[in-house]
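Hi L.,

You mentioned the student needs an example of a multi-chain input paired with its predicted structure. This one should do, with 729 residues in total across all chains.
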Amino acid sequence: MLTIGHYLFLSLALFIIGVIGVITRRNVIVVLMSIELILNAVNINLVAFSRLYGDVAGQVFALFIIADAAAEAAVGLGIIIAFFRNRETVLADEMDLLKW
Amino acid sequence: MQPASQATLEFLKLYWAPLLCGLAVVAVLPLIAGYVVLVERKIMADMQARLGPMRVGPHGLLQPIADAVKLLIKEDVIPDSADKLVFWLAPVLSVGAALLSLAGLAIGPAFQIAQDINIGILFVVGISAMGIFGIVLGGWASNSHYSLMGALRSSAQLVSYETAAGMALVSGLLFAGTLNIKSIVEAQREQGMWFVILAPVAFFTYLVASIAETNRAPFDLPEAESELVAGYMTEFSGFRWSLYFLAEYTNMIVVASVATTLFLGGWLRPFASVRWLDFLDFVPPLLMIAVGAYCVLRVPKQPSRMQQWFMLAVAGLCIALALVLAMPVIAPVLKASLREAAKPFFAGIHGGFWFLLKVSAYIYLFMWLRFTLPRYRFDQLMRLGWHFLIPLSIINVLLVGVAMIAGAYFHLHGWWLLLATTPAALVALVAALLILAAEKQSETRPDRAVPSDFYAG
Amino acid sequence: MLDKVIFYFFAGIAVGGAVLTVTRRNAVHSAIFLITSLLATAGIFLQLRAEFLFIVQIILYVGGIMVLFVFVIMLVNLDVAVRQIQFARQKWVALVIALALAAQVGLMLWSSAKMPGQGLPVLTAAPANQLPLNSEEVAKSLFDSYLLPFEIASVLLLVAMIGAVVMAKKRT
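Structure written out for the whole complex:
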């Protein structure tokens, strides 16, 4: 029998892997990809509960999260391209223009 | 029973039919794609006043087999600094996406591999859009400038025209009211006319966008022989190249099938809901008999004895097909029990014939355009997509929506709906001409000196 | 039984793809593994009877966002970055904190499964042809109860489009 717990554990696993990616990697493009993993994990959570309660609101919310992720990825990648043009680096440690 | 084998048995019991059909299609499709290539070469030859492949087999009919053997025995060359994993993966992604999207299509009312998907047409379009990765990763994995630029150009083109194609499909779907493929065709039967008459601008937009989606001329800059060597396919030789080729022709078939389903009435004969035109049901067998008769007439003109026998064999095949097609129409005079047993068999035959006829007509149009029009330059291509097709398709969605609301308000059904949609189409046409005029005006203004950007567009 | 096998299949691919995404040196490899993870998640959506979300995930997330990622990775020259150290200096502390968070939430889920009388609810297996059509339900909901978020989302996308164009434009 598949319980809601199966999907919650899957969502937790993906979330934690995404968090590890965000706080550990130096390459900002991989950091952005890990953020997409986090959003994905949240989507699985929402859709699992939507199936449990038969309410389609969870799926609609997940749809908005996907639209939001697209917007955020576009702007984030635009920022990376703009920064790369100036500083020739994509490593987070080397983006220290504001350091005193 | 062990859980693993129990699960497998359960799976097989539920899904044995789609699995078998899917395997059959995947096995047969490379052969079909090869023969589509032969047909294209013959049509190209016909339009260029020559004969095309004639040597290998009678009238060149074994040419695809010879080509396949040649490609399979070629040496597999992998560039030294190429990324091996991605180099292997890229053609597989292209072919996989193209073949998977075939699963959602319904060839006739009886043949559909993935039955009754709620999101039918969106499934086909979405999965075939995944083929972009095969192109981008293939170009990147080759580790060569020409490949990378060709890949980026090709995928930029595909992404741009995907939006226009999607919006055009939305215009057609507004009339269908559902995404399910069989329901779309049923909606066209209820409406009494194909959606191309209700939404001609959408069909035109989808036609142009689908030519660009499949990288066919006049939008084939990324893979033309005289540009960028061969674009993203440069470093792929032998079997890998044939996989890309197979993906391209399968994409063509998929795109033609989507257009046929949504705009050209799917498997319905012309005027499917008009009872007094039921004699049109005799057209398929009569057509095949006509083709067979033509083959028989050409027999004396063949140069050699073997080719004469071959023509007679082709004529016999056409007559046999005509007999098969004639069975559903003469079924009412058969015994009642025989009729009942053969009903599911008959349901699909004529539908399949009409569907394949329309798909072939669409693909013939593709080939005709390829051999007639010169190639678009890349910036012209991108300008056409973004400045013309996308605004036109969005305006069209708006206008079709307004037409549908007007139709619902005045209770227009069937052919009366044309009263609402024709003005919408005319306004869209005027909008298109205005956009084109604005583009022409902006072209004649002298450009400032702009540094050239390779990824422009 | 069959749905358990399907779930573990997709879940395994999703988690495996995620782990590989976060650990690869080459950004394009990371992108490819993220694509497999997202496709596996789409499979999970399909298993949860969310058909519209399945195809939206494939069209938008995989066919849109990931294509954008791959484009940017190719435009940005990563030859230098590939040879650098990939993990930041704080990696061990970060790992410990993340695993502590995982243990905390995991323990909460596990104990709620073991609670007598309540436990975690079971997903009922309703026959597919008695469920309402998924696309129609989502569409009704979007244009009925959630119309305002729908309009705000379109404004958000417009703003993001303008922002991305402005950010990535070359200063002439």
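You could point out the following to them. Chain B touches chain C through 37 residues (CB under 8 Å). Residues 3-47 of chain B form the longest helix (45 residues).

Best wishes,
N.
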